[in-house]
């Protein structure tokens, strides 16, 4: 149990390395291996999150046997080893990655059945999971960069996996190029901090950062790179290109990958620079990015004809809600009265929406994958009447669509309500925009629902069958969680969201948990 | 028990279970009203066919409304906005990179001015 943080990375890495070897023993054994290691990785994630939520922050240091060796006596108070720091915020993200990671692996068993090169596919998918898990649990900026690169490169390769007249390769190239340039900018920022503070540990940096001109430049480089990676407008252009071309299971996890970047952005703003930046200014920058993402995302989604491209624009739009909630939390940070009345509820709403979005957007991408798997097209103009033959897929789509549109009693409504109410007190215009975006989201998904499932049975799809069982299981688990989180939102807030919000706000706690009071 | 199932948003509250109960009751009332209808009505006569100025009704498959036909009015009314926003999505990686660098530069200016 003590080594859970290391195992969270080791498990998918072992899965990735050995998958090509296991694949030589046949498809059935390889599928069993993939499911086994996905289960194991998710189980480790849940156990780790449970341990953190029950016992407090875990600081796991590689290469030492006891906690008092974290900071060597001759290091000048600087932890020189690799440290994973998992507080409630990290645990919250680990739970999201564990749920979605398991569902997409189960789904992929059937979804990838027709394709060749499955050993490479699962290897890359495991690497993507390892990269995302690493980004979430590391307490070291350089480690964060390394895991960001692992997830970016694995993601780019997976986007290009299904060669479709070169379009997928182009989409993968775009994703890879922008991610690499963003990563390089991030690395420059790390260098600027390292030369000043002789450390890459986030807790050390958070305790020593002075907001010198170099710190300021580093902050801008971190912020822009992570905002681009999470798909914030106007840096969202890669999102529809990549999300639409990747296999649907990959797209569902690319959403989580983007959310890991979002987590990084919040960690930089709240923990690393929380004490030295002008939180009102940065809060408003995040709010403006959020509003732009919400509005431009949804309005660009409505005229789309490719169902996955449409959903990708909605992913941009939903990221806007998260940015709005967390941005209001940051803008209110410097005013204690405003923080308690508006900031904390908005922050909780924004964080809750991260989890809800991972579930329903994952579900929606998986339903789109089923349509492509059975019908061979994503073009809404060519689809119709599928509800006659694909009743379960239609049901799962309805659940996901109502959740993303914020219709009660699904989970999207609960988090959006928290955002609307708190943001309304902060600035009513922002709340009105958020509500209008929800209405447009519903309109957009009504169009998708009608185009895919309604109408008479079309001759070309008369023989189309329901999705295979593993795909239904993957979607079913996500759909069940969308309903459960919608029916019992307070339990989710109490157990996962509120501790995550407290951890994000507790700048001093993060530092002392790692350094044990040593500065 | 009720409090446990209620989401406290900080400015209000929301109970999804009560909502579901209300929804179920509404559906039951709707079903009861529907069940009062006449079950002996013959739907196979011309009375149920659409009247298309005397023209024959085309096959259902031929008149399925496709995605491009939906929200035409909305996109047409906002054509000014779409004419502005769509060309920005060029699909060109160099343009994507330019947007990223422009935001980085703008952010730097904002952070320096309002530090």
**Distance between the first and last residues' Cα of chain B:** 48 Å
Q: Secondary-structure element order of chain A, as H and E? A: HHEEHHHHHHHHHHHHHHHHH
What is the count of DSSP helices of chain B, taking H or I runs of 4+ residues? Answer: 4
- Helix share bin of chain A: over 70%
Total beta-strand segments of chain B: 2
Q: What letter string, H or E per element, gives the SSE order of chain B? A: EEHHHH
Residues in helices of chain B, as a percent range: 40-55%
Overview of the molecule:
The complex is a heterodimer of chains A (519) and B (115). By secondary structure, chain A is an all-alpha fold. Chain A has helices at residues 4-23, 27-55, 88-111, 118-137, 141-159, 167-197, 202-208, 213-229, 238-245, 248-272, 279-301, 307-331, 336-375, 391-404, 411-426, 428-453, 469-487, 489-505, 507-515, and strands at 58-61, 83-86. Chain A has a domain at 278-487. Chain A has a two-stranded antiparallel ribbon with strand order 1-2. Chain A is globular and about 75 Å long. The two termini of chain A are 29 Å apart. The mean pLDDT of chain A is 94. Chain B is mainly α. Among the domains of chain B are: 6-35, no CATH class; 75-115. In chain B, 47% of the residues lie in helices and 5% in strands. Chain B has helices at 16-35, 72-77, 79-85, 93-113; strands spanning 6-8, 13-15. In chain B, β1 and β2 form a beta hairpin. Chains A and B meet through α6, α8, α9, α11 and α13 of A and β1, α1, α3 and α4 of B.
